[in-house]
Write a structure and sequence with these properties.
652 residues; mainly alpha; MetI-like fold; two-stranded antiparallel ribbon; 25 helices; 1% strand
């Protein structure tokens, strides 16, 4: 962070003293905000290790290789869940990578600007759809469509559910991430390489295949790995269509994944059961961590190459130049050997170019069709089930049931989580921008990237073990950790540590998910502020704190607020972290955040698999309300930020 100039005119000592104090306060507050992220990550790993130690110590290697999961007989084998997680994730990658990379190549290299603009915008909306809505669509549309196919292949007992259905649904969910990151990697390829390829007579497809994609392979691979990390940690959509049967069988059979069993069985029937479930969470965390670290490493290496930073030494030039290669065979003329072959080759290349242009265009179409189908299908059926009672009643009166209490509960959870997480995310972003060369800045940025990729069900598991389990279990290992035990004692004295799910615990879980989103969005916004504005503020005698608070942050406020709203839209659709932190209730939360808090996505999840037709109608209405809210926030914020960006660019 640059130091402000010291003025020599007049008596400026009081002002300089105040500026020094405010700058020191800025340093302390932003350092605290940045330090929260490594602290949360360290506490997450500590809790997973401590809470799973009992089962790992008792079961040993049999936990990872065992195939039986019997709670009554205390037999816990994780292999069926690991198998279900890896198979569905691998299947989703096999489907999503060709479609995502093909769509990215089409949008970056072939599509006209207006198609590129609208298609990328729609793909971003596809990424914003909550996972519970994907699962809802899978239950009511994808499963019935696949059921006759399964019956024809001899797997009718699955009823359309199973590993293949879950993998197909996961592919649809991760395609937007792979497409977006692959698009960025392809656009980063220098245009001179394309021009050189075309100048040598290569067709557009040959240029894409032989020049563009090889040069963008690192970024594409990083995007695919991040998509794989998202697929491994997905919970609700998979739980709704995989069948939830712990077996190791064919792709068309039923299965079970680690996130699904955590969502369905936590907090467990007894202490050993809970420890085994948390051990499954530890396995999921390690798999997700390894994939995300590798993906981030690849993307950072690719970024260094693009920026021209020095890397490995280039290979030395040979001492003597190689012998020239003859272009034609001895004794023949170039015209005799080249023209007929060249003419035939050009015709073949034109045909291949047309075919591949059509194939890449179909990749874009295949990606966008589910977006319109999901939105149209949910809107058409869900809107017809809306009523006044849906917004104003709870479930206490069977004759006039509604989900108004769940709507209010979701609103409270999101607002409280935003109040908790936004200041920490913004303070951390200011630290990363103003003190970017410090060791803490590098650690915080790395940890924030990892926290974005942590499965949401693990966040709920973490908050449950931190804020709920210690109150119900005096033998909880956290009481033996010095700093943590003191914090738990303070919470218990304040009455905030209770042995059951509460709205506060759910809000903390959502805040943990929101913090890295706000931090990364705010950091990108702060970095767009021109350095000349900062220097001009210092030249006028402003202190570091005054420059940040009165100049830098206001200049980036629009983009920062946009990031906050997009983060709110994301956590509004979360289900897994709230299942065992917020709990659920069929009534209005009259006593506030200190009791179990109903939330909308819970009823979408449970009612979609129920037998009562009235419950399914409410699930349809809830899915429509949730999808409409998320879509409106994403569209509104992107249009708002786009207008402000255009206005600011015109003023410069």
């Amino acid at each position: 962070m640059a130091s402000p100039p010291i003025l020599s005119v007049g008596n400026t000592r009081p002002g300089q003293r105040r500026g020094a104090i405010s700058s020191q306060l800025l340093l302390w507050s932003t350092t605290a905000g940045a330090a929260v992220f490594p602290a949360v990550a360290a506490l997450l790993m500590l809790i997973l290790l401590m809470e799973s130690w009992e089962s790992l110590q008792l079961l040993g290697p049999s936990f990872l290789v065992g195939s039986e999961w019997n709670v009554q007989e205390r037999r816990f084998g994780a292999l069926p869940f690991i198998y279900g997680t890896l198979v569905t994730s691998a299947l989703s990658i096999l489907i999503a990578v060709p479609l995502g990379v093909g769509a990215a190549a089409c949008l970056a290299e072939i599509a006209p600007p207006w198609i590129r603009l609208w298609a990328t915008f729609l793909i971003e909306l596809l990424a914003a759809i909550p996972s519970v809505v994907y699962g809802f669509w899978g239950v009511f549309f994808l499963v019935p469509v696949l059921q006759p196919v399964f019956e024809a292949l001899g797997a009718g007992g699955a009823g359309g559910r199973g590993l293949f259905t879950a993998g197909l649904l996961l592919a649809l969910m991760i395609i937007p991430y792979i497409t977006a990151l692959s698009y960025d990697a392809i656009r980063a390829v220098p245009n001179a390489q394309r021009q050189a390829s075309r100048a040598l007579g290569a067709s557009r497809w040959q240029t894409i295949w032989s020049v563009v994609l090889p040069n963008a392979r690192s970024g594409i691979l990083g995007g695919c790995l991040l998509g794989l990390g998202r697929a491994i940690g997905e919970t609700m959509a998979v739980a709704m269509v995989i069948g939830n049967d712990p077996r190791i069988g064919s792709l068309l059979g039923l299965g079970y994944s680690i996130p699904s069993v955590l969502a369905n069985q936590m907090p467990g029937e007894n202490r050993m059961h809970r420890s085994a479930l948390i051990a499954l969470g530890l396995v999921l965390f390690l798999i997700s961590l390894a994939i995300n670290v590798f993906a981030r490493w690849i993307l950072r290496a690719e970024k260094k190459v693009r920026s021209g930073k020095p890397g490995r030494n280039p290979p030395a030039a040979p001492a003597t130049p190689p012998d020239p290669v003859p272009l034609v065979k001895p004794g023949s003329s170039p015209l005799e050997t080249g023209l007929p072959h060249l003419a035939g080759k050009q015709v073949f290349n034109r045909r291949v170019n047309l075919v591949m242009t059509f194939v890449l265009g179909m990749c874009v179409l295949i990606i966008l069709v589910p977006l319109f189908h999901i939105f149209g299908y949910v809107t058409w059926t869900g809107a017809s089930n809306l009523s006044v009672e849906f917004f104003t009643h709870d479930l206490s009166v069977p004759a006039a049931k509604g989900l108004g209490h769940a709507l209010l509960g979701s609103l409270l959870l999101v607002l409280v989580a935003t109040v908790m997480g936004t200041p920490l995310g913004m303070l951390g972003a200011i630290y990363l921008t103003e003190y970017r060369k410090s060791r803490l800045a590098h650690i915080t940025r790395f940890v924030a990237d990892l926290l974005v990729g942590v499965p949401s069900v693990l966040v709920g598991l973490f908050i449950y073990a931190l804020l709920i389990q210690p109150a119900s279990d005096p033998d909880c290992p956290l009481w033996n950790v010095p700093v943590v035990s003191q914090g738990l004692w303070l919470l218990s004295q304040a009455g905030w540590l209770v042995p059951h799910p509460t709205g506060w615990a759910g809000a903390v879980a959502l805040a943990v998910m929101l913090m890295p989103i706000v931090l990364r969005a705010s950091e990108e916004a702060l970095r767009t502020v021109p350095e000349a504005i900062r220097r001009a503020s210092y030249a006028l005698g402003a202190s570091a704190a005054q420059t940040v608070v009165r100049v830098i942050v206001p200049a980036a406020a629009t983009a920062m607020v946009t990031g906050v709203f997009l983060g709110m839209a994301r956590i509004a659709g979360e289900t897994a972290p709230l299942l065992f932190t917020a709990g659920s209730s069929n009534f209005w939360a009259d006593e506030g955040m200190g009791e179990k808090m109903p939330f909308l996505t819970y009823y979408i999840y449970t009612y979609s698999t129920g037998d009562q037709e009235s419950d399914k109608r409410m699930a349809w209405a809830g899915a429509f309300v949730l999808l409409s809210f998320v879509m409106l926030v994403n569209i509104g914020m992107r249009l708002f930020s786009g207008r402000r960006d255009v206005a600011s660019s015109r003023s410069q």
